[in-house]
């Protein structure tokens, strides 16, 4: 899918390539990002880039952060808005927009955000869309803002994966793309957790990835930390 654009709205309507909800909807923030929050690495106003159904945004709002989530899928955005309303989370707001173009941001976003978090968006973009995305979120970032990216590492998926394979990255590729607009602090190996449905005990040893205690897939990834210079 390097040049192909996934129909993300059909995925969130559960009419796409997955049976049921997309596997990255795990009912909570990705553990790697939850650990950053717990360690005090998030501050100020937060932009959740490619928020999906906004498990990350909602968790941040519950802790008192002001969060704006942006996603291309109107279905995901409506689900996020409803969840925020149901939980009484007035500090979370959501917009349907193309995050690769700053013109689609809500008014007043330029230089606004102190923390920007990309929870599995980067590898979902067409490769040719990365530069516009990175330029746009840099424009939305306040001076000294922090930026975190959680993206699939090369080899996370078998080469023969036919449909819906993300644009996985190696460390050098990730550093080169992000470093054009951001000062990189660290890139380290990490995991993306995915819900993959019931797995028989006898099949566990045959899987190409490990499972956590909840039997979610732990897939190789990178976690990048950067700041706006």
Task: Write out key terms for the chains shown.
229 residues; S-adenosyl-L-methionine; Methyltranfer_dom; alpha/beta; single chain
State Rg.
17 Å
Biggest beta-sheet profile: 8 strands, mixed
Q: Please give the share of residues in helix.
A: 10-25%
* Average pLDDT level: 89
Q: Distance N terminus to C terminus?
A: 32 Å
Please tell me what the overall shape is. globular
Q: Which blocks of ≥5 consecutive residues have pLDDT under 50?
A: none
Hey, roughly how much beta strand do the residues contain?
25-35%
Class of secondary structure makeup: alpha/beta
Query: How many H/I helical runs?
Result: 6
The number of strands is: 8
Order of helices and strands: HHEHEHEEHEHEEE
Task: Describe the structure in your own words.
The chain has 229 residues and is an alpha/beta fold. It is built from six helices and eight strands, in the order ααβαβαββαβαβββ. Strands 1, 2, 3, 4, 5, 6, 7 and 8 form an eight-stranded mixed sheet that branches. α4 (74-87) links the parallel β2 (67-71) and β3 (92-96). The longest helix has 14 residues, at 74-87. The protein is globular. The mean pLDDT is 89. Its EC number is 2.1.-.-. This is Class I SAM-dependent methyltransferase. Keywords: Methyltransferase, S-adenosyl-L-methionine, Transferase.
